[in-house]
Amino acid sequence: MSRRPPRPPAADRARPADGEHPAGGVAEPFGERAGRVAAARRLTRRVAREQVREFLAEGPQAVREALALAGERPGAVRVVFGTDEALDRHADLADLARRAAVPVCRVTGRAAAGLSETSTPQGLVAVCRFVDVDLAGAFGAPAPRLAAVLVDVRDPGNAGTVLRSADAAGAGAVVLAADSVDPYNGKVVRASAGSLFHLPVVRGAAPAAAVGAARAAGLAVLAADAAGEADLDDLADAGTLSRPTAWLFGNEASGLPSSLAGLADARVRIPIHGRAESLNLAVAVAVCLYASARAQRVRAQAIGTGNRPGKIAGSSASAPPRAIP
Predict the structure, then answer these.
(1) Could you give the 3-state DSSP secondary structure of residue 238?
(2) 3-state DSSP assignment of residue 13
(3) Confidence category of residue 28, pLDDT binned at 50, 70, 90
(4) 84 and 106 in contact (C-beta within 8 Å)?
């Protein structure tokens, strides 16, 4: 007669982890100590993000745009965490997640706070895969008609706002070159308001390589420079801004290195009509991109093509239709 093996000590017996429940149990929200929550919380640190190539997108707008991307690109979002209150308030997100085959995990308020990098957590966080591309992906066919290249831009709020402004202006690429801030920094993601998921983003590229890629794609290169010899308004009036263009922008404090500005077709200053010493970087980017976007739209209307696909000046690539306000 066989004997049953002795049961292991209670401390060694498998038990459901905090936030995980046995079959038939009542499903409660995951707590901050649950394994999957703890793993996601590590993504608030850059080194952990780089190891797994994943990042956190917090808030309903960012989560909504991440899920929209996941609907087109399966696997772009790993999981969505949400408190009961947030999921009730934004019920459409659960439907979006279901259609994109993305699991939704209910979490406690404390667990959501642990995944947040803000003082007022919004209760919704998505774990997303990195979305950046290389220079070939950003400037390959079909080439963008408008792009922004940021060099050594360190402020995450500025970088996120630039992504949002570039998206709104209809730009086709943003390059965070050299030692610019990590686009997956929580503040950058929040400031982009979902635009990180809308357009190609390159990170860590050498500035000269970015200029070369833009030129190879048929884009003119203009450097924003407070001491530039060309005036933005004059270029707009002359029709120069109607060409496909990559704009270069430098560090918030020191601007563009002269060696890099010298690679541009022109150094362009934004006219200051009042007594302000200068413009904030993100504002300057928006002004320049919208000036180019308007000039390109006016030219397209003048030649009767509207936003239909057409050849890019100086390039064999076809430009896709782009919505320019």
Answers:
(1) helix
(2) coil
(3) confident
(4) yes
CA distance 319 to 322: 8
Q: Which residues contact 291 (CB under 8 A, 6 or more apart)?
A: 232, 235, 236, 241
- Residue type for position 10: A
Query: Between the CA of residue 249 and those of 23, 60, 164, 220, 225, what are the distances in Å?
Result: 56, 30, 16, 14, 8
Cβ atoms of residues 124 and 59 within 8 Å: yes
Indicate if the pLDDT at residue 42 is higher than 60.
Answer: yes
Domains of the chain in start order, with CATH, are: 28-129 (3.30.1330.30), 135-319 (3.40.1280.10)
What phi-psi label fits residue 103: left (phi over 0), alpha (psi between -120 and 50 degrees) or beta? beta
Q: Rounded to two decimals, what is the model's pTM?
A: 0.83
Q: How far apart are CA 43 and CA 41, in angstroms?
A: 5
Give the sign of the dihedral formed by CA 177, CA 181, CA 185, CA 187: negative
pLDDT 10s digits, 159-187: 999 999 999 999 999 999 999 999 999 99
CA–CA separation, 169 and 175 (whole Å): 15
Angle at alpha carbon of residue 143, lines to 194 and 304, rounded to 5°: 100
Q: Which residues have C-beta within 8 Å of that of residue 282, sequence separation ≥ 6?
A: 157, 158, 161, 162, 165
Respond yes or no on whether the N-terminal peptide bond of residue 142 is cis (omega within 30° of 0).
yes
Residue 171 contacts residue 144 (beta carbons within 8 Å):
yes
